[in-house]
Amino acid sequence: MGSVAWKQLVLNALESNSHLNHSSFMQLATIGTNRTPSNRTVVFRGFQDNTDNIQINTDARTRKIEELKLCPSAEICWYFTDSWEQFRINGTVDIIDGSNPDPLKLQQRENSWFASSLRSRSQYLCPNPGLPRLNEEAQPEISLDPSTGPVDAFCLLILEPNLVDYLNLKSNQRLTFISNESAAAKKSWIVERVNP
Amino acid sequence: MGSVAWKQLVLNALESNSHLNHSSFMQLATIGTNRTPSNRTVVFRGFQDNTDNIQINTDARTRKIEELKLCPSAEICWYFTDSWEQFRINGTVDIIDGSNPDPLKLQQRENSWFASSLRSRSQYLCPNPGLPRLNEEAQPEISLDPSTGPVDAFCLLILEPNLVDYLNLKSNQRLTFISNESAAAKKSWIVERVNP
């Protein structure tokens, strides 16, 4: 197990838990603006191209955006309920909203928008999440043209990992993966077996 | 739903998800010693007596203890995979290890020790978690006398909540609960319906 890349372990876990709808749900911790931790469930939207970077879609109006602007560090805790595997993935987050000056990043944001279901996309047109609910009556059904590009509230987050802690509760094995300092596109990882 | 206490919502969720072994698993976020977030799965060990406080058992040798000593703030993210409910529970954590000067707290620690399975208890006799695994061979089976009290590494955490965010993805409803500033034993909560 010592020489296995953590990304392959994630792909294996996704495969062996793919019968569970929640297998792509992970918890993303950030540091709140009041310096206390924040933690919420987000959905894994795949690895970015051929890298180790993790893609997450989010609403630009949520508190996590403000938090990540102040402190871009985050840690994902991802527990697979059938295979009893936990990944703790620590890294820094790049926020890509519609105002991003990089055309390549804007293209990634658009790709992630169109890779989402229409139902997911329409959530970005709902009232501001977390604000008091003003209208007690049922919200009107939002219809969104399938060809419409990303709306203002749609935001792509890219987490670039630098430390991964893998725990397998069935085999009782634990591995830590630390990235080297190299800024190269293809970074390498040092793996160590640690006590569970 | 507006007047329901969040604790009752937790108890309801535990009941409706009780067929799943992982329903008591939650993710605890803290602030790391290097000021980046830390996040890991822990087990809900019940509410403390008749309070809203949440009990968690942990190994005193894990990194979270050092982190909580520097910053006692934490946020639990607890997602129930069958009922599609999420609780985000923010609060401060009291660390109760064997050196605690309060006899009442030591009693609580002992109660929590004996409420755990023998298998859980024996984990606190294993080699230091997170340190390099020195012995590649299988660890000898640890036998622990059922009458033995809490060992040095056993630590009880008590999280006292002050902010709870509840999201129900089936009904698409979201509530926030904020505790009042009263230091009374029975604190009260202000509830507000917010946009999901």
UniProtKB/TrEMBL annotation, chains A, B:
<dbReference type="InterPro" id="IPR000659">
    <property type="entry name" value="Pyridox_Oxase"/>
</dbReference>
<keyword id="KW-0288">FMN</keyword>
<keyword id="KW-0285">Flavoprotein</keyword>
<comment type="pathway">
    <text>Cofactor metabolism; pyridoxal 5'-phosphate salvage; pyridoxal 5'-phosphate from pyridoxine 5'-phosphate: step 1/1.</text>
</comment>
<dbReference type="Pfam" id="PF12766">
    <property type="entry name" value="Pyridox_oxase_2"/>
</dbReference>
<protein>
    <recommendedName>
        <fullName>pyridoxal 5'-phosphate synthase</fullName>
        <ecNumber>1.4.3.5</ecNumber>
    </recommendedName>
</protein>
<dbReference type="GO" id="GO:0010181">
    <property type="term" value="F:FMN binding"/>
</dbReference>
<dbReference type="GO" id="GO:0004733">
    <property type="term" value="F:pyridoxamine phosphate oxidase activity"/>
</dbReference>
<dbReference type="GO" id="GO:0008615">
    <property type="term" value="P:pyridoxine biosynthetic process"/>
</dbReference>
<feature type="domain" description="Pyridoxamine 5'-phosphate oxidase Alr4036 family FMN-binding">
    <location>
        <begin position="5"/>
        <end position="96"/>
    </location>
</feature>
<dbReference type="InterPro" id="IPR012349">
    <property type="entry name" value="Split_barrel_FMN-bd"/>
</dbReference>
<keyword id="KW-0560">Oxidoreductase</keyword>
<dbReference type="InterPro" id="IPR024624">
    <property type="entry name" value="Pyridox_Oxase_Alr4036_FMN-bd"/>
</dbReference>
<comment type="pathway">
    <text>Cofactor metabolism; pyridoxal 5'-phosphate salvage; pyridoxal 5'-phosphate from pyridoxamine 5'-phosphate: step 1/1.</text>
</comment>
